[in-house]
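Q: What structure does this chain adopt?
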Amino acid sequence: MTGDQIEIRFLGPPQLLRGGRPLAGWRSRKALALLAYLALHDRPVVRATLAEMLWPDSDEARGRANLSWALNHVNSLLAGCLAADRHALHFRRDDAH
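A:
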């Protein structure tokens, strides 16, 4: 692996590497769960589905706000690895290995 490529390992504790080095700074298990779920699904996932799955006890508005925070957290550490529009999110596989 070279450059700024992203590697995500799910065997054992989840590990994220960028350029072969561990990526530190994760403050949220839900943000990591969001990244893991999107990385394992080879299609866009509707935002409402993600919010309901990750925050099942929250109302719709709170779930969407939590999802927005988690998305911002992932993007702050791995800019460009997620593609998003108003309705869905997906993991950009061309940026990860």
